[in-house]
Design the sequence.
């Protein structure tokens, strides 16, 4: 597979409709370790590392990547998600910031309350990060990302940190859910059936479905399909791989089966998705 190397930083502006869920295990080919979520509108509920918290406008959270994010209330949520690895921290941050970020990384979730002026600054920095965080954007993109991320960390270091309250949920069911999602992340290219994951976790398919639906609000089958479509889209965006080869990489029996799957879940063909930003296509 000819895949363009992915960066250690990924920046996305997301909209989460009412009653929707994002499982960040499955949001990228690249397995990022940490993320910053910067709220713009609405409210989300986030479960990660034994903590459950709600995040609203003018709030930021630093947490580990493996999280459930649910929309909350009666309106869509809009937020920035900045995902990155420890490698990016080590190579990009100036000496004033690594102790701050390392402390947060070691301690799990940290929520920040930012004032209006800080929010305006961070929004501008996020647009600059998004523009320069893709692969091979320009010779100066890496330096711009480094400077921009450092400025954002400076803003957060001066903001109030609010420790999320401990979450007392059903630890057993959440542990099973985490194991399932980790398995999907590792095995989705070769296993698309719920039964495989149920057998791997030594439980019945019906019991696994009941637990995953209760914790995430989504069935295991839907989560597996979400992982497949997200992986397919990222490979189409970041590689020159043929549709036939991509179908093989994703474990489909034929390219036509993959094309039908992709069209059903995205409303377009893989080729049209890849060419969507090319003038005249």
Sequence:
């Amino acid at each position: 597979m000819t895949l363009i190397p992915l960066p250690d930083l990924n920046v996305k502006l997301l909209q989460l409709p009412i009653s929707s869920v994002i499982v960040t295990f499955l949001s990228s080919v690249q397995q990022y370790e940490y993320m910053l979520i910067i709220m713009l509108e609405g409210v989300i509920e986030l479960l990660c590392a034994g903590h459950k918290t709600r995040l609203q406008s003018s709030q930021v959270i630093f947490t580990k990547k493996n999280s459930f994010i649910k929309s909350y209330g009666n309106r869509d949520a809009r937020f920035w998600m900045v995902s990155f690895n420890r490698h990016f921290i080590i190579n990009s941050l100036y000496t004033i910031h690594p102790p701050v970020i390392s402390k947060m990384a070691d301690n799990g979730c940290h929520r920040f309350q930012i004032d209006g002026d800080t929010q305006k600054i961070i929004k501008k920095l996020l647009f600059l990060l998004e523009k320069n965080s893709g692969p091979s954007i320009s010779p100066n993109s890496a330096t711009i990302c480094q400077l921009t991320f450092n400025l954002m960390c400076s803003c957060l270091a001066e903001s109030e940190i609010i420790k999320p309250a401990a979450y007392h949920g059903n630890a057993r069911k959440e542990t099973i859910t985490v194991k399932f999602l980790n398995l999907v992340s590792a095995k989705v290219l070769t296993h698309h059936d719920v039964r495989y994951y149920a057998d791997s976790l030594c439980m019945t398919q019906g019991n696994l479905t009941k637990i995953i639906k209760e914790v995430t609000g989504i069935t295991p089958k839907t989560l597996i399909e979400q992982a497949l479509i997200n992986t397919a889209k990222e490979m189409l965006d970041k590689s020159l791989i043929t549709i036939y080869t991509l179908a093989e990489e994703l474990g489909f029996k034929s390219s036509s089966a993959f094309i039908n799957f992709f069209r059903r879940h995205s409303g377009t063909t893989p080729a049209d998705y890849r060419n969507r930003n090319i003038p005249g296509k």
